[in-house]
Design a protein that fits this description.
This protein is mainly beta. The protein has a domain of 124 residues: Aromatic compound dioxygenase (Protocatechuate 3,4-Dioxygenase, subunit A). It contains three helices and twelve strands; from the N terminus they run ααβαβββββββββββ. It binds fe (iii) ion.
């Protein structure tokens, strides 16, 4: 045993230095989503290094598909064209398993409204599908979606996503943006799906890690 301690040591009050040391050594309990909160774990790392404490990433909440999904969107990560109106937005992040291992080869379908809040139901404007890279990362260039009326109330700005991978449970959900006043009144918003946007040149950027359950 390398970490045997005397009873006196165990019973002694924690010094500030020791407390900070213990906190630094504690396993991270990850909150998925905004600001890439999940720690990265290399594929196979847990099996190779039994001394590394287990990590866990929380499965991303699902959310309604809505009526505007169209299958067969083009494979592309750039959904915006130079002539499109709207604030440019780059969304990126990773797809992880519940033990925080990046999932390569996840298919992500993205669809959203244009700047005026309209979906293209005759074509594939602001629709696309992409596949996560070897490190589980994804990235989409688009615009901040416009809000649209659902009955008499606007839905907050949101981006729809579907994720699929043969070894994991499929996920359909939506991403929302911090500071949207309609987040407070929309019945479908979930706090865990709200991400902050920060300024990036003339546009915005935001990060979100998806966590998939095993199939
Ligand atoms: Fe929608």
């Amino acid at each position: 045993m390398t970490n045997r301690r005397s009873p006196a040591h165990v019973d002694a009050p924690l010094s500030r230095r020791r407390l900070l040391g213990l906190l630094a050594a504690a396993p991270v309990v990850a909150v998925p989503g905004a600001l890439a909160a999940c720690p990265v774990r290399r594929p196979g790392a847990a099996a190779r290094d039994a001394a590394v404490p287990p990590q866990s990433c929380v499965i991303t909440e699902d959310n309604i598909e809505g009526p505007f999904f169209l299958p067969g969107a083009p494979h592309r990560a750039v959904l915006v064209t130079p002539r499109d109106a709207g604030t440019r937005l780059v969304l990126s992040g990773r797809v992880l398993s519940t033990d925080c291992v990046p999932i390569a080869g996840t298919r992500i379908e993205v669809w959203q409204a244009d700047a005026s809040g309209a979906y293209d139901v005759d074509g594939f404007r602001f629709r696309g599908q992409l596949v996560t890279a070897a490190d589980g990362t994804w990235r989409v260039s688009t615009i901040v979606p416009g809000r649209y009326l659902n009955g008499r109330q606007y839905r907050p700005a949101h981006v729809h996503v579907k994720l699929e991978h043969p070894r994991f449970a499929p996920l359909t959900t939506q991403l929302y943006f911090e500071g949207d006043p309609y987040n407070e009144v929309d019945p479908w918003v979930r706090r865990s799906l709200i991400l902050p946007l920060r300024d990036a040149g003339p546009g915005k950027m935001g990060r979100f890690d998806f966590v998939l359950a095993s199939a």
